[in-house]
Amino acid sequence: MEYKLPFKEYNKALRKSRLLGLKCNTCGTITCPPKMSCQECSGLDLEITELSGQGSIVTFTTSFGAPQGRENELPYTVLLVKLDEGPWIMGNLIDMETNKINFDIIGRRVKMSSRVYPGDIYSGGSASRPVFSFID
Amino acid sequence: MRKVAVLGMGHSQFCFNAPKTQVELLSEVSLDAITSSNLTVKDVQAAFIGNALGTIAEGQATVQQFAVNDMGCHNIPALRFEGACASGTIAVRDAYMWVASGFYDVVLVAGVEKATALGTPLATRCFSMAGDAKYEFPAGYTFPSAFALLAHLYASHYNMPLAKLKEQMAAVSVQSHHYASKNPLAQLPFEITAEDVLKSFMVSTPIQLHDCCPFTDGAAAVILASEEVAKKIYEKPCYITGVGLATSGQLSTQYKYLPRLRAREISVDQAYKMAGITPQDVDVCELHDCFSIASLIAAESLGFFDFGTAGEAWQKGETKIGGKIPINISGGLKAKGHPIGATGISQLYHICKQLRGEMVDLGVQVEGAKTGLVDTLGGDGCLCHLVVQR
Questions:
Q1: Which residues of B are designated catalytic?
Q2: What is the distance of C-alpha B380 from the center of its chain?
Q3: Which of A63, A116, A122, A129 should one mutate to test binding to chain B, selecting the residue with the greatest count of B CBs within 10 A?
Q4: Every domain of chain A and the residues it spans
Q5: DSSP assignment of B82-141, as one string?
């Protein structure tokens, strides 16, 4: 059975700041990032759908220690964002200095664009990553 | 299904920069387990080995085959289990099933890791491999950041001021160091204060250095045997009476349950039901405190405290010896250390020591402990549980 939305295709769209997900025609749940099956009901009748990339911050952390090879990115802020369509996705916050970020950003509205993680010897190539900036 | 006993055990010093190889560490702890079971290497029918990062740490894949032939268990089946930080526990669970089924009577379960050989930057990279490589690592997701995300979510979800949660998290680390100071096998056997925690280096907000377990080198081993064998050769067997294992996908897709981890609740429920017990029956618990916040999340899902209240329990001493449920009396991953392939077996070792009443001399015996629980978390969602009884 064919994988409806493979990483390669999802990644290609994300590189252009377009966020693709899968809508389940059985239960209506949106799965993003993509999977073989609906993350709620395991249904296989899925269709590719473009998501708004907008949502609210549900949690965050600013990291001061990095994996090998990513030290030059420090400090950076990782977010979990609840998308307006339902699913949560992970990305980075880009338009606020890390020393100004505090607990109050939880709940704030954000919109998505993307940047590229170039990859390392373990990663099997590069990958686009969602990055977020505040809407208001 | 047959009853399965834990017989002899072995446990290395947990430390930075172990001077021995993974094979050497495995051989030492395994021979301790075999000989203290009143067995010889000829009696071991199969070996189940937990190891997560040896391929990178030493450039050694299939460490299990080299280890068993090194220790003298020539030509026996040897399998490696990889479930990140739960590698050792899932090895125990599989070994349990092979003995319970009647296929084997005597098996060795051992685990090893040499994480400090990697150095902190590469170790951080390798541990992050247990997160989602394609969809979450690109954002710089690491394990400190995973539990940092959960810490902020915990405060938000339970409507708790962050400063209050930070004090509760510090209480967890202080307790773990207190008990590690009495454990000669511990990597960090010294006391710390809440002030030490709150002044330590900020790793990933709100997680500070003393909220984190260290990278660790070490090994541990146990012999599992059928009840029939145990009764013939061993004076004080403990019995594994319940096991559980459940998994989840990447962190973001667990959103309906976070900050709770659904896989933990499914797995521990399997183990409790199989053993025919409830959380109230557990006398002593070793749980997966890779980060201080992880202890709160775990203790609540294991059924010991109401959701959002575990931190208060630590502050009131309810998790100490004499409290409602003594937790991580070994010093936990935080201060005993966390050599990930060996961690679950070390947890089992310390639970069995408690059930056998062998912690009196160290001054950390939970008096009359009859039922113990092991809780181990690997990666974003590999949760494994063992109920052990005497």
A1: 85, 338
A2: 15
A3: A63
A4: 7-51, 54-134
A5: -BTBTHHHHHHHHHHHHHHTTS-SEEEEEEEEEGGGG-HHHHHHHHHTTS-TTTTGGGT-
Structure tokens at B293: 């916040």
A67–chain B Cβ distance below 8 A for any pair: yes
Q: How many domains does chain B have?
A: 2
Per-residue model confidence as pLDDT tens for chain B (390 residues): 999 999 999 999 999 999 999 999 999 999 999 999 999 999 999 999 999 999 999 999 999 999 999 999 999 999 999 999 999 999 999 999 999 999 999 999 999 999 999 999 999 999 999 999 999 999 999 999 999 999 999 999 999 999 999 999 999 999 999 999 999 999 999 999 999 999 999 999 999 999 999 999 999 999 999 999 999 999 989 999 999 999 999 999 999 999 999 999 999 999 999 999 999 999 999 999 999 999 999 999 999 999 999 999 999 999 999 999 999 999 999 999 999 999 999 999 999 999 999 999 999 999 999 999 999 999 998 999 999 999
CB pairs under 8 A between A and B: 127
Which residue in the set B138, B148, B252 is minimally distant from A88, CB to CB?
B252
**How far off is chain B from A109, nearest CA to CA, in Å?**
16
DSSP B64: H
ipTM: 0.98
Sign of CA dihedral B285, B287, B293, B299: negative
Tokens of B282: 């557990």
Q: Which member of A80, A122, A129 has the closest CB to residue B129?
A: A122
Q: Does A75 touch chain B (CB under 8 A)?
A: no
Contact: A78, B140; criterion CB under 8 Å: yes
Domain assignment present for B131: no
HEC profile for B242-264?
Answer: EEEEEECCCHHHHCCCCCCCHHH
Structural domain harbouring B327: 143-213+240-389
Structure tokens at B294: 């992880």
Of B139, B206, B250, the CB nearest to A91: B139
Q: Please report which helix (H) or strand (E) contains residue B164, including its range.
A: helix B162-180
Does residue B274 lie in a domain region?
A: yes
CATH number of A54-134: 2.40.50
Q: What angle do CA B15, B18, B21 make, to 5 degrees?
A: 140
Q: What are phi and psi of A21, to 5 degrees?
A: -140, -175
Asked, for residue B126, whether it belongs to a domain, the answer is no
**Model pTM score:** 0.98
Alpha-carbon distances, residue B379 vs B102, B140, B258, B338 (angstroms): 31, 15, 15, 14
